[in-house]
Amino acid sequence: MQTILVPIDFSAASETALVYANKLALHLPAEIVLVHSHVGATLTPERRVALLSRLEALAERLRYQHLTRQSGRRIHYHYHMAAASLTDSLEVLVSGYRATLVVTGLALVDCATATAAGNPVMLLPEHVSCPVLIVPPGRHELASEVVVSGDFSRLDAHQLAPLTSLARTAEAHFDLVQFHPPTSTGLVPLKKALMAARAAIPNATVHLLPEEDALEDISELCAQLSAQLLVLATMDGCLVRRFFNPHYTQTNAYHLRIPVLLLPTSTVPTKACCNQCGLRQAAESRLMARITNVTF
After folding, report:
1. How many C-beta atoms lie closer than 10 Å to residue 162's C-beta?
2. Which SUPFAM superfamilies does the annotation name (predicted)?
3. Residue-range definition of the domain harbouring residue 65
């Protein structure tokens, strides 16, 4: 049986994550570990008991949300109190519980200003050894239409095959998307990598597309395909961080409305990348400000 870790801070976002994790737990199947991080004042035995009781009450309240009573009873929960921030303890917990997945609620963060310990931006794939599933607000069913975007020349069947278990049924459709620079001429290796990836995932359609803006291109393609789950497998840690910038709420970007699975393939952005990204975000903010100020 697999294990899913769900960080819980008792916010609406963490409740949404737990509701989705419940559905996955029945489908995989998997057991769920609810993790609460207590940082600051000393955790007294009385306070620890109270927080564990609160975690258990939350799990029991959400156990039957969108599930039948008979199905809900099949979910097994464990509860863990972390004395350190999730930034410091999450990978230890993933290893200790042998977790195959972390499910967390969507928290929009401008990485240029994210400095506080435990910030959600730190729960990204370069910090944990298993995939991280980020669930936005709203009700979400398990996906029957899945988009997988990444560098397939760096992905193998061992990383791709488990993705089929996250879909609603074995007949779920997958779109495998490889973007390339518009001026690129050496596309044969990319085509071969896509075809090899399709061999690992049944019911898959492959797409080899020129890239203008990676984030915009992925989001627009997901909207065109009515994707219910986006799997992002990129080495570009800067791109991953851009995905969850509050800026994209202004355009109601599609990728903020569906669950996004981040495979542990990205690397921490370099200073040069962060500087370039900052310039891009500043330009986008100025553009949005001009659009907002236009009167009709």
Report:
1. 16
2. Adenine nucleotide alpha hydrolases-like
3. 1-138
| Residue 224 belongs to domain with CATH number | 3.40.50.620
Q: Are 93 and 5 in contact (CB under 8 A)?
A: yes
Q: State the residue for tokens 């986008």.
A: 284
How many CB atoms sit inside 10 A of residue 192's CB?
Answer: 12
To which H or E segment does residue 234 belong? none
Query: Alpha carbon 201 to chain centroid distance?
Result: 20
Q: What is the CA radius of gyration of the chain?
A: 20
- Domain edge (last residue) among 118, 138, 158: 138
Provide the number of structural domains found in the chain: 2
User: Is 0.70 surpassed by the pTM of this model?
Assistant: yes
Q: Which long-range contacts (CB under 8 A, 24 or more apart) does 153-162 make?
A: 153/189, 153/190, 153/193, 154/233, 154/235, 154/265, 155/193, 155/197, 155/233, 155/263, 155/265, 156/200, 157/196, 157/199, 157/200, 159/233, 159/263, 159/265, 160/197, 160/200, 160/201, 161/200, 161/201, 162/100
Burial of 55 (0-12, 13-18, 19+ CB in 10 A): buried
DSSP class of 172? -
Based on the fold, state whether residues 220 and 183 are members of the same structural domain: yes
18 plus 44 within the same structural domain: yes
Structure tokens at 18: 């737990």
> Are residues 109 and 172 located together in one domain of the fold?
no
Which residues, including other chains, have CB under 8 Å from residue 140's CB and lie 6 or more apart?
A: 20, 228, 258, 259
125, two tokens? 């794939």
**Whether residue 82 is found in the same domain as residue 52:** yes
> 98 exposed, middle or buried (CB, 10 Å; 0-12, 13-18, 19+)?
exposed
Q: Residue 168's Cα: distance from chain center in Å?
A: 17
Question: Scanning the structure block, which residue is given the tokens 């095959």?
Answer: 161
